């Protein structure tokens, strides 16, 4: 047994680094003595847990601890008997409650590498990331504590520990002369800095749990948000595990097309003396030689050459540069990423952050960055498909945000429009004598907190006309205006608002107009989370692929698709303050892209 002694604000911390099976009895005594609540973590070769079955992903260390002490098990150095892996399994099953930071990842790891199903551990697991978000949902950039372990350590525990320990892997990467994302695989298992980093993780998680739990607002507790968020995260982890098959031929063809388009555009640029379309210097020189007057400057005072500048230049060189950059970005972001993420099961596995924004709106990253896909297009979605014999089904809410606004504000005109199935966008447009499209834009702009300038730019109208249309909206839906003003007053006075589900959302006092948007976006996110929980309760999680804001994507057996699609819509629909927020299912073919080619069934 190797010992590492450390201090957090003069409080001693001891890390026991297990080296041989003879060290395990002490570890087992430690777990038994603290079984009521054990903090834990894992160190792995990377983040791609779905590659474990192919041998490309490994569990290196498993760590368990309390506020003052931890044990590090070198699972990777196990002999054929698997003593360390078995000890880790035993500890996870012995603990009455577990706490980890970003627990969903570690649950995937132990399922893939230790054979313990997520369903066994999740019901008794706490996640300090989720608790931190309920305590304060702001990122560091927004003036909050953030939600990464290093950020929370710096804010709540000790800045020195954040700098010395949680940032140490960057130092180790430089020491080993490897990239940051390669250090986890490259660092020797017995490296002192690595063992300190690993051993401190459960200690920090245990301390954060103690600090953060009392900071969750009482109203949030009464509403059951702590257990709600943990259940939502666990369900999302099931979706991650399900994965989404990739149509490799489709992806390779799109990638090849974009590569060719990029080459052609770069060839055009070279005829104007631009060898590298990413070089600002070359572009400025080329456009200056062409007589183009460039006036926009960067923050550092250099001539700007961003997308807005290029769009304003009507010249083949500008078109070529934009095309080259767009093609390279699309290929790398969507198609190359999809190919790189394919696991041994032929699927890609997204990462779902169930508290992705201040409002807790979910975000999807990794191999399926769904929020970046072009709206209303099957171009990228065609890369992903259902399993053989299955079809894609999308069930989403109809006008969720506006319906919620109508019910929340109690505005009679807006409520009547939905109750009588009237055209709300036309009603808004008629109030100011503008086309329906402008009415639709203003309806959503009011929800999002957009001002007259943004509306004017979006709709191609004057700022004065945009103000007139906003005034028409407020005259038509007076209760919405009153409700928004009420939220803004609360935000100015207290610095936060409450959502319908009991979530406390800080609102910058300089931006009180954000209050309405925050309340609606967060409450609608919780309607989707409620749907996820309801679907899970009825056994549908095994078919879910992704939750995308107001939509949930499924893959159902083809011969049961109609029956199951109907049930998803029934389970997802929700009534708030007497107003139905309906859900509608759309059945496509095997490809996700089929939802956008018109060949679907409602």
From TrEMBL:
Reactions accelerated catalytically: DNA(n) + a 2'-deoxyribonucleoside 5'-triphosphate = DNA(n+1) + diphosphate
Sequence ranges assigned to domain 3'-5' exonuclease in this UniProt record: 15-217
Database matches in Pfam families: DNA_pol_A, DNA_pol_A_exo1
SUPFAM superfamilies attached to this UniProt entry: DNA/RNA polymerases, Ribonuclease H-like
Broad enzyme group: transferase
Residue ranges constituting the DNA-directed DNA polymerase family A palm domain according to the UniProt record: 377-560
UniProtKB keywords: DNA replication, DNA-binding, DNA-directed DNA polymerase, Nucleotidyltransferase, Transferase
Protein name: DNA polymerase I
Organism: Streptomyces mashuensis
Gene3D superfamilies, sorted: 3.30.70.370, 5' to 3' exonuclease, C-terminal subdomain, Ribonuclease H-like superfamily/Ribonuclease H, Taq DNA Polymerase, Chain T, domain 4
GO molecular function per UniProt: 3'-5' exonuclease activity; DNA binding; DNA-directed DNA polymerase activity
Keyword set includes Lipid metabolism: no
Family: Belongs to the DNA polymerase type-A family.
E.C. number: 2.7.7.7
Domain of life: Bacteria
GO aspect biological process, one term: DNA-templated DNA replication
Entry keyword annotation includes 4Fe-4S: no
């Amino acid at each position: 047994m190797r010992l590492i002694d450390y201090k957090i604000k003069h409080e001693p911390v001891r890390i026991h680094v297990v080296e041989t099976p003879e060290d395990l009895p002490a570890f087992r005594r430690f777990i038994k003595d603290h079984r009521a609540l054990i903090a834990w973590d894992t160190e792995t070769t990377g983040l791609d847990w779905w590659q474990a079955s192919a041998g490309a992903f490994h569990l290196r260390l498993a760590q368990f601890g309390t506020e003052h002490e931890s044990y590090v098990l070198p699972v990777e150095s196990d002999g054929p008997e698997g003593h360390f892996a078995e000890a880790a399994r035993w500890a996870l099953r012995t603990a009455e409650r577990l706490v980890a930071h970003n627990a969903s990842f570690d649950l995937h790891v132990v399922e893939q590498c230790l054979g313990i199903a997520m369903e066994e551990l999740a019901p008794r697991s706490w996640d300090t990331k989720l608790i931190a978000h309920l305590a304060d949902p702001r990122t560091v950039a927004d003036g909050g504590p953030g939600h990464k372990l290093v950020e929370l350590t710096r804010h709540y525990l000790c800045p020195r520990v954040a700098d010395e320990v949680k940032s140490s892997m960057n130092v180790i990467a430089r020491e080993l002369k490897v990239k940051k994302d390669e250090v986890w695989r490259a660092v020797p298992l017995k490296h002192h800095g690595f063992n300190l980093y690993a051993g401190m993780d459960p200690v920090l998680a245990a301390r954060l749990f103690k600090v953060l739990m009392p900071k969750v607002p009482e109203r949030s507790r009464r509403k059951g948000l702590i257990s709600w968020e943990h259940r939502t995260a666990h369900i999302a982890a099931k979706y991650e595990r399900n994965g989404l098959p990739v149509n490799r031929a489709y992806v390779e063809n799109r990638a090849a097309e974009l590569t060719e388009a990029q080459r052609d555009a770069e060839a055009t640029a070279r005829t104007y003396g631009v060898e590298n379309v990413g070089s600002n210097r070359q572009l400025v020189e080329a456009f200056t030689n062409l007589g183009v007057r460039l006036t926009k400057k960067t923050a550092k005072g250099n001539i700007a050459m961003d997308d807005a500048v290029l769009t304003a230049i009507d010249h083949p060189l500008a078109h070529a540069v934009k095309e080259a950059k767009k093609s390279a970005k699309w290929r790398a972001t969507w198609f190359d990423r999809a190919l790189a993420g394919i696991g041994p099961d032929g699927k890609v596995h997204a990462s779902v952050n169930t508290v992705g924004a201040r409002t807790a709106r979910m975000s999807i990253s990794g191999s399926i960055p769904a929020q970046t896909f072009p709206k209303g297009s099957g171009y990228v979605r065609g890369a992903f498909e259902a399993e053989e014999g299955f079809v894609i089904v999308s069930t989403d809410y109809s006008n969720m945000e506006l319906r919620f606004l109508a019910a929340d504000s109690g505005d009679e005109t807006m409520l009547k429009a939905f109750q009588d199935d009237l055209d709300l966008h036309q009603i808004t447009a008629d109030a100011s004598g503008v086309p329906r499209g402008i009415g639709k834009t203003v309806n959503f702009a009011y929800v999002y907190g957009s001002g007259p300038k943004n509306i004017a730019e979006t709709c191609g109208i004057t700022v004065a006309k945009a103000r007139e249309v906003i005034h028409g909206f407020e005259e038509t839906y007076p209760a919405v205006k009153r409700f928004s003003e009420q939220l803004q007053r609360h935000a100015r006075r207290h610095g936060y608002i409450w959502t319908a589900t009991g979530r406390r959302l800080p609102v910058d006092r300089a931006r009180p107009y954000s209050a309405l948007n925050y309340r609606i976006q967060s409450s609608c996110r919780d309607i989707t989370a409620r749907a996820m929980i309801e679907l899970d309760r009825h056994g549908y999680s095994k078919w879910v692929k992704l939750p995308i804001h107001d939509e949930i994507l499924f893959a159902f057996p083809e011969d049961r698709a109609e029956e199951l699609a109907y049930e998803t819509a029934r389970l997802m629909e929700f009534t708030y303050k007497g107003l139905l927020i309906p859900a509608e299912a759309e059945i496509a073919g095997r490809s996700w892209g089929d939802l956008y080619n018109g060949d679907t069934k409602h």
